[in-house]
Fold these 3 entries.
Entry 1:
Amino acid sequence: MDKGIDSFRRRILMVDDNPAIHQDFRKILGAGLPTADALADSEAALFGGADDASGRPTFEMDSASQGQEALELILSSLKENRPYAMAFLDMRMPPGWDGIETAARIWEHDPDLQIVLCTAYSDYSWDDMRERLGCSDRLVILKKPFDNVEVLQLADALTEKWRLARQAKARVADLEQRVEAQTCDLQKAGSRIVQLERSLRASNEQVRLLSITDSLAGTYNRRYLNDELVREIERSRRYSRPLSVVMADLDHFKRINDEHGHHAGDEVLRGFADLLRASIRQSDWITRYGGEEFVIVLPDTEIMGAMATAEKIRLGCAAAPIPTASGRLKVTASLGVAVMEPQINATTDTAAALLGRADAALYRSKSAGRNRVTPAADVGLWSSEWTIPK
């Protein structure tokens, strides 16, 4: 705790080259004289009082005969954390500094000190003093001759002003420190909230991806197909662009499970999904529709382009056996292709209708002997009528 603020004695420095003046001030202020007993002093310290048992302010006064000596006492008091509240400075103190220079040098080290300049009418004018010291609310001029009441009132008022100013400054500093600490805490909390929000968004995105991803094949799942195909159809209508759907099914997949086990069957499904991903564009997407059946959605693709993609998948599957723990298994795929042409059925087609036509085409591929690509009946194109574009 700052002793300079909370001490129950009011410290005053008297600076004058005349020793008799010092004695006069001590008599006026009661400084250096016997005060109340120790109990009264303790009560004043405990309860914040600044007065002795008689109700008079209690002052502690030090003396200096020259400005240089006064500055040394000021520096010492600051070092001990027992600053003076005010100082009475005589204007003329030959051969050293005068009162104005002493005040200026003291304020360089202790700007809070209240100063009373004791000056005769023949000394500097107020304008001269203001020019040298500037306008300050810490400076009071006491014209000589002065009476005891003036000195006592100045001492009482200025030391109390100093105490209140220092107390306010300490409280402001404490508040600023608390605000800074709370601001730091809020910044840390804000940073933590941002991190949590990012983590939450990442977690939500992970949950979203898990909810629309087939865990075995790594493709989209049927839930995603049901939602996104509707949006693809809406985009196709809005921009009058064709939309094609390829439905692919692995031939005799049950035989693979029966002969090599479900683990090998899972490996075949994953290998086929990899083949599908390698056969399509970045704008296309794949869904595991169920079991060994997949749906490939081809935005902005007309029937011939969709047939070419489907044939690429069929040939790739037939040409490259899929590695499994049971060895490399040769599989084939049957595919059906349907298209939504904006000029023909864009206003009436639905996701279910489009998938239904692709599924019917797939059924015809299987009925015709499997390992082939068949277009939907509504496009008027049969597998024997088309070739892969060069």
Entry 2:
Amino acid sequence: MNRRAKLLSSIAPDRQLGLEIGPLASPIIPKSERNRVLYVDHCGTPELIQKYKGQVPAGDIAEVDVIWSDGSLQDAVHGKTFDYVIASHVIEHVPDLIGWLREIGNVLAPGGNLALAIPDKRYTFDIARPLSTVGEVVAAHLAHQAVPSVKQVYDNYTMARAVDTTSVWNGLQTCDTVPYLHPRGIARTFVQRVVAGDYVDCHCWIFTPRSFLDVLRALTSEKYISFGLRHFFDSEEGENEFIVNLSAHMADDASFAIAGASGETVDNGLR
């Protein structure tokens, strides 16, 4: 199966109503007369064009239908219910992972699908960062964390490495040999912005396939979220992400114990 087929393994865009969060210039589900999808982002299209000026051609940025910044997703969509939500490389950026999943659950019909593409830290610039723990996720939620923390921002900009995914898979790079991605000392500037009240985007959460499933299983069994695992697609050789499809309001913590979730099967010094 290709990447799109995995993400849509439980979704029928031509027959269902859905949301795609953060499509920017590469939506998984293109808008058409058949596909009833709305695009969600933290600001409108003009703001995104300005934000990514020089990085993404303005004409490539998808037209945003729903702005979700302050307030609930339910309010942003005016109380509508959806059959699916899809988000590619979004969940690792959200300051409150539990709150974000709950917001999505609130707009999904029972049995509705949440499809996620998530970076596998072993093959991305997060290679040197420690895995996120359940305790960190719960602490962020109980603190009503609305912006990335000083620690998350600092770690993001001091520990990021210039990883080549293919080289890591082939054993030509390890955690100890990959050079730093950002200049030394730059993190202090970003931390000062956080202290001043700015929102500094970064990877808040760091996962492997197994660690992500472990976190979801714990959050489900402790009733922080209400999702069951419908499909799981491990990181494939040469790729830097894994894909999960979750079922809303059908909590089953046992379903997250998937045989063959590699997590740590390829060592390469990356644990």
Entry 3:
Amino acid sequence: MKKRLPLSIVIPTKDRHAMLIRILNYLQKNTFFFNEVLIIDSSTKNIFREKEIKNNFKKLNIKYYNSKPSTSIQRNLGLKQIKKKNKFIMFLDDDIEFYNNAFKIMHKFLATISTNIVGVGFNSMTDKQYTKKISERIKNSDFFYRHKIYNSKPGVVAGSGWHTKILNIKKNTFVDWLPTQACIYKIKIIKSMTFCNQLGKYAYLEDLIFSHEASKKGKLIINSKAKFKDNHHVGRNSFYFGILEIKNRIIFIKKNNIKISNFLIAYIFFITKNLFSTFYNIKNFMRFLGNIIGIFYLIATINIKELGNFKIKIFR
């Protein structure tokens, strides 16, 4: 039997008991990979099930905490409560399904990574054909690449502040950011960091902001052979989410001194795409309206001088 890794797993959860049980069942079959599991639960009070979960999963060494609803707040609580002597922390969503050998592959990989690697991600597998969409073709065009608006490579943060998806990776790949669906960090490198608490209850982009900051301390990499399936179980208000899509992106670009002009070009494309999407899904109209409201956060905080080259960039 493999020696347990000095690794803490932090799972934020809210009102998804069945999914939580499924992921805990997987963990129970792979106890060599970690020495504790921290469940940070923001569910409604009537469905807290701490006693039931601890009794049914005694092998997992579970610590159970209640929290306000926000994945940023929940993950920050997990960061504070992990074993001090552990070397790794894993952030894990409750709605994903790992391939059977994912932890074995990752266990071996962690033993070989160089000292300059600060974070490692599992490989998200999906059947969706994003490349066939017209919007994806436009985003990956030479114009967008030359103007640093977007990038066709996975896991890149472009000069506009927009990041590219990380899906179905064929080989181990260094990236600019890591999704918190399933990722691992070296604790000694990120111990002073926290997830941004300005992002609302959905905490949209909390993983981008956190991991991009971590990338300044070392390299981030995706292990292509350690795979999981993302079931995308997200329930949210379209209008409110539309606001956060833009507001939280603005928080990110300001934290990283990204040019406002680059961001605005990407923003125009983004809201146009969402507007046209309402023709086949009327629910997207509320998301589009939220996108329009979201830009007022920029208007309220922007320095007009930052817009100097915006017109030139559009018509270059």
